C-alpha cells in the first residue's frame, strides 16, 4: 500500500513538473440546473479545499436564473462559491424550438466567457441541452472537457445528448461498471475513463442519520409521519410531449385516489413543462389538502425527504439513482429512464396508460423498505476525481484512441410482467419424493406434481425433465409466465455452476451431477440449483419471517437437520459451498454416531432419523407403547410414535425428546456466538416440538448479549419449494446479478 501511494505521489509530481511547477490546474465548473448542481457541488467543494492544486471558476446558466424554477443560483451562493459569470440562456417557449433556441443563445454567449477565463479544463455534467452547448463551445475552443456521468443509458433525447457530449469530451468520470463498458464500446480511451461512482453519493451515504422530522414537517406538515408520504417528480418527455402530459394527468389522478400526503416538485425546463404546470393547476394540486407543490427543495433537505418517504413516483433520474441509497420504494413511470441500472427498490411502469395501473403500482410499493443499493457509488467519488484531475498532463495531445469491446445487456422488472403472473418452476429433491411446482411471484403454489424419487441417476434425471416439461406446458393454461427453474436438493451444491458436488446418504447416485445444463437445454430457461437448507433460508427471506431482516439463521428440523445463514441480506455459501451445515455442529464428543461419520452432531440427536432410532430401541425393549397407543404388526416405528408416547406420559420418550431439544439448543447457542443473527427460524415438521427447549437452552447457556434473539417457528407450508422458486424470482427480477 505504501509503495503504491509513493508511486502515485511520484506520478503527480512528474505531472506537476510537466505542467510547470507553479501552474495550478484552472478548472471551470458550469452548472445549468438544480439537478446537475447536486452532482457538481461535492466536486466543487473538493477543488476549493485544495487551492495549492486548483483554481476554481464557476459559471451559472440555464434554469438556475429563472424565477419560475426557484432562482436556484442562490443555493450556490449559500454554499459560499463565487459565481464568476451568470449567463441567461433560456428562451421561453413551450415547444422543441425553444430548446434549440436556448442552445443557440448559449453558443453565442459562451465563447466570450471562455476567452476571458481561459480554463485548462471544463467540467460538464450529464445530458441536458444546456450541457451540450457547454461541451460544444469548449471542444471548438480547444478546452479539455471532463464529462461526469457519461456512458449511462436512459430514454428520450437525453441519451443522444449524453452520448454526443461523450464524443466531445476528453476525460470521463462514470458511475457504474456498465457505464464504463459503454464508454469503451463507444471508442473512448480506457486510460481517460475513471470509474469513480456518483459524487452525490458522497453526501447521500452520510445523510440519513441527520435530523429529518423538522424537514418533513416544514415541507409536508407537522402531522405527517415517516414512511407515510409520497414524493412526486415528473418531467416532460421531449420526444413524446403529448403522451407525457397525459401520463402526468393519470399520475395525479392516481395520487389523488391513493389519498396520501404528497410533495409534488415542478418539472425541469423542457418542452412541455408549462403544460404540465397547467395540468397541476387544473386539478387544483396547489390547493389540495393532501398535496404540497413546490418549485425547488434544497438538495440537503430533498435527501432527507426521499430517504424517509413511503414511496417516490415519477420519471426523474434521481428516483432510479440516488434514492436507491436509502432503499426507498420507487415507481418509475414511462420510458424516460429506460435502460438505467437500478436496485430492486425500483418498479417500472413503462406503459403508464391507465390510472389503475399506476394505482396498482402505488399499492405494491408504498411503505416497503428495500435493501440499500450502492450501484451508483460507495461514498468516495470526490477523492478519486480530484486524484484523476491531478494526473492530467496538459502537454499530452487531445487526440483519442479507439477500441471496440462488447457491451452487456441489462435486465429489469416491469409492472406488465408482474400483472401477467411471473412464476418459477420449483423442484424439490427429497429423500423420498420428487416434487415440481409452479410458484407465483407472491409465493402461491399454483400447481404441484409429486412422484417417488427414483433410486438411480438416469431415472431420476429423466423424471425431473419429464415433470418440468409437463409443468411448463401447464403453466400456459394457468396464465403463468415461467422465468426459470429453481432446484432444491440435499447435499453440497456449487450454485455458481449448478452442480451437486456430493449428496447425503438419503439420495443415492447423486454426486458430481450437473443439473443446470440438461434442464436448461431441454426447457430453454435459466436454471438455479442450491442446497435445501439454503433454499429454506431464501424462502424465509422472500416470503416468511426473514423478510426485511438483515441477519438471520434458518434451521430445518426434519429427516435430517440442515439450515441456511443470511448475513447482510445475502446468503452465505462459504469457500467450498459447505457453509450452514448446521446439522453437523458437534455438541458432544462421545455422542451417538451421525450419518456423516462423526459423533455427537446435532443431527445424531435431534433429526427425525435419530428420533426414529431411539423409538425403535424403546419398542424393541417393549418400553415405547403406553396406555392410549397401539401399533399394527406391519407398522414401521417412527419419530411420530416417540412424540405421541411422550405426550401420553412416557417418561423415557420425554427424556429422549428433552435430550434432543437440548442438543439442538446448544447448536443454536454456538450459532449465536459465531454469526450473531437477530433472528432464528425453526422450520420443518419437528420445529414446534423443539422451539421451547431451544429458548430454554439459550436462556441458560448463551452470553447475555445474544439472549434477546428472537426464536420463531416458520409459518411457511412448503419452504423447500418456495426456496427453490426464490432462486428464480429473486434473480430474474433484479437488474444486476
TrEMBL record:
Residues engaged in binding an N-acyl-D-mannosamine: 492, 504, 532, 581, 584, 603
Domain of life from the UniProt record: Eukaryota
Main location group: cytoplasm
A single BP term in Gene Ontology: UDP-N-acetylglucosamine metabolic process
EC number per UniProt: 2.7.1.60, 3.2.1.183
Key word Nucleotide-binding present: yes
Membrane-spanning ranges: none
GO cellular component, one term: cytosol
Catalytic activity: UDP-N-acetyl-alpha-D-glucosamine + H2O = aldehydo-N-acetyl-D-mannosamine + UDP + H(+); an N-acyl-D-mannosamine + ATP = an N-acyl-D-mannosamine 6-phosphate + ADP + H(+)
Pathway in which this enzyme or protein is active: Amino-sugar metabolism; N-acetylneuraminate biosynthesis
Binding site for Zn(2+): 584, 594, 596, 601
Compartments reported by the entry: Cytoplasm, Cytosol
Gene3D superfamilies attached to this UniProt entry: 3.30.420.40, Glycogen Phosphorylase B
GO molecular-function terms, A-Z: ATP binding; hydrolase activity, hydrolyzing O-glycosyl compounds; metal ion binding; N-acylmannosamine kinase activity; UDP-N-acetylglucosamine 2-epimerase activity
PANTHER family on file: BIFUNCTIONAL UDP-N-ACETYLGLUCOSAMINE 2-EPIMERASE_N-ACETYLMANNOSAMINE KINASE, ROK (REPRESSOR, ORF, KINASE) FAMILY
Protein name as it appears in the record: Bifunctional UDP-N-acetylglucosamine 2-epimerase/N-acetylmannosamine kinase
Organism: Pheucticus melanocephalus (Black-headed grosbeak)
Protein's gene: Gne
Amino acid at each position: 500500500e505504501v509503495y503504491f501511494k509513493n508511486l502515485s505521489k511520484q506520478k503527480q509530481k512528474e505531472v506537476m513538473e510537466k505542467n510547470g511547477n507553479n501552474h495550478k490546474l484552472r478548472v471551470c465548473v458550469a452548472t445549468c440546473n438544480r439537478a446537475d448542481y447536486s452532482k457538481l457541488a461535492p466536486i466543487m467543494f473538493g477543488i476549493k479545499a485544495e487551492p495549492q492544486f486548483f483554481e476554481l471558476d464557476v459559471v451559472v446558466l440555464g434554469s438556475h436564473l429563472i424565477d419560475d424554477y426557484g432562482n436556484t443560483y442562490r443555493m450556490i451562493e449559500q454554499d459560499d462559491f463565487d459565481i464568476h459569470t451568470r449567463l441567461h440562456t433560456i428562451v421561453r417557449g413551450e415547444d422543441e424550438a425553444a430548446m434549440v433556441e436556448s442552445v443557440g443563445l448559449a453558443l453565442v454567449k459562451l465563447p466570450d466567457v471562455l476567452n476571458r477565463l481561459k480554463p485548462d479544463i471544463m467540467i460538464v455534467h450529464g445530458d441536458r441541452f444546456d450541457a451540450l452547448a457547454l461541451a460544444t463551445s469548449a471542444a471548438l475552443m480547444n478546452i479539455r472537457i471532463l464529462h461526469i456521468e457519461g456512458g449511462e443509458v436512459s430514454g428520450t433525447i437525453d441519451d443522444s445528448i449524453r452520448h454526443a457530449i461523450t464524443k466531445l469530451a476528453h476525460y470521463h468520470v462514470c458511475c457504474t461498471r456498465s457505464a464504463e463498458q459503454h464508454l469503451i464500446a463507444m471508442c473512448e480511451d480506457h486510460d481517460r475513463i475513471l470509474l469513480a461512482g456518483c459524487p452525490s453519493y458522497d453526501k447521500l451515504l452520510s445523510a440519513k442519520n441527520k435530523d429529518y422530522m423538522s424537514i418533513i414537517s416544514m415541507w409536508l406538515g407537522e402531522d405527517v409521519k415517516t414512511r407515510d408520504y409520497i414524493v412526486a417528480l415528473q418531467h416532460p418527455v421531449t420526444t413524446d410531449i403529448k403522451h407525457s402530459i397525459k401520463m402526468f394527468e393519470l399520475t395525479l389522478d392516481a395520487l389523488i385516489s391513493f389519498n396520501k400526503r404528497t410533495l409534488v416538485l415542478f418539472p425541469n425546463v423542457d418542452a412541455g413543462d408549462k403544460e404540465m404546470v397547467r395540468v397541476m393547476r387544473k386539478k387544483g394540486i396547489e390547493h389540495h389538502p393532501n398535496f404540497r407543490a413546490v418549485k425547488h427543495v434544497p438538495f440537503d433537505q430533498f435527501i432527507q425527504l426521499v430517504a424517509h418517504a413511503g414511496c417516490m413516483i415519477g420519471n426523474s433520474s434521481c428516483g432510479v439513482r440516488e434514492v436507491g441509497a436509502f432503499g426507498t420504494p420507487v415507481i418509475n413511470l414511462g420510458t424516460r429512464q429506460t435502460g438505467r441500472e437500478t436496485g430492486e427498490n425500483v418498479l417500472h411502469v413503462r406503459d403508464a396508460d391507465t390510472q389503475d395501473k399506476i394505482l396498482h403500482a402505488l399499492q405494491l410499493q408504498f411503505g416497503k423498505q428495500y435493501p440499500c443499493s450502492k450501484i451508483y457509488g460507495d461514498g468516495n467519488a470526490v477523492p478519486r476525481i480530484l486524484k484523476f484531475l491531478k494526473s492530467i498532463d496538459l502537454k499530452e495531445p487531445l487526440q483519442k484512441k479507439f477500441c471496440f469491446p462488447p457491451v452487456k445487456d441489462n435486465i429489469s422488472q416491469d409492472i406488465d410482467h408482474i400483472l401477467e403472473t411471473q412464476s418459477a418452476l420449483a423442484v424439490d429433491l427429497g429423500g423420498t419424493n420428487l416434487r415440481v411446482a409452479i410458484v407465483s411471484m407472491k409465493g402461491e403454489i399454483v400447481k404441484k406434481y409429486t412422484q417417488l424419487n427414483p433410486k438411480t441417476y438416469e431415472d431420476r434425471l429423466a423424471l425431473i425433465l419429464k415433470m418440468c416439461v409437463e409443468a411448463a406446458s401447464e403453466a400456459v393454461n394457468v396464465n403463468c409466465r415461467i422465468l426459470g427453474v429453481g432446484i432444491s436438493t440435499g447435499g453440497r451444491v456449487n450454485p455458481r455452476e449448478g452442480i451437486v458436488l456430493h449428496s447425503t446418504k438419503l439420495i443415492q447416485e447423486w454426486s458430481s451431477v450437473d443439473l443446470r445444463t440438461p434442464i436448461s437445454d431441454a426447457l430453454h430457461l435459466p436454471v438455479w440449483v442450491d442446497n435445501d437448507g439454503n433454499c429454506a433460508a431464501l424462502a424465509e427471506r422472500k416470503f416468511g419471517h426473514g423478510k426485511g431482516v438483515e441477519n438471520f439463521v434458518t434451521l430445518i428440523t426434519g429427516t435430517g437437520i440442515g439450515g441456511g445463514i443470511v448475513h447482510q441480506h445475502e446468503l452465505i455459501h462459504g469457500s467450498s459451498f459447505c457453509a450452514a451445515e448446521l446439522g453437523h455442529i458437534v455438541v458432544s464428543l462421545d455422542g451417538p454416531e451421525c450419518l456423516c461419520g462423526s459423533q455427537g452432531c446435532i443431527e445424531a440427536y435431534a433429526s427425525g432419523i435419530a428420533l426414529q432410532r431411539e423409538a425403535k430401541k424403546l419398542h424393541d425393549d417393549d418400553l415405547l407403547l403406553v396406555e392410549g397407543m397401539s401399533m399394527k404388526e406391519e407398522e414401521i416405528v417412527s419419530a411420530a410414535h416417540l412424540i405421541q408416547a411422550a405426550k401420553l406420559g412416557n417418561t423415557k420418550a420425554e427424556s429422549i425428546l428433552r435430550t434432543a431439544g437440548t442438543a439442538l439448543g446448544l447448536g443454536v447457542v454456538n450459532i449465536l456466538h459465531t454469526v450473531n443473527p437477530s433472528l432464528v427460524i425453526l422450520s420443518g415438521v419437528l420445529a414446534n416440538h423443539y422451539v421451547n427447549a431451544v429458548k430454554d437452552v439459550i436462556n441458560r447457556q448463551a452470553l447475555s448479549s445474544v439472549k434477546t434473539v428472537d426464536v420463531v417457528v416458520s409459518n411457511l407450508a412448503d419452504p423447500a419449494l418456495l426456496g427453490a422458486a426464490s432462486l428464480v424470482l429473486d434473480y430474474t427480477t433484479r437488474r444486476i446479478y
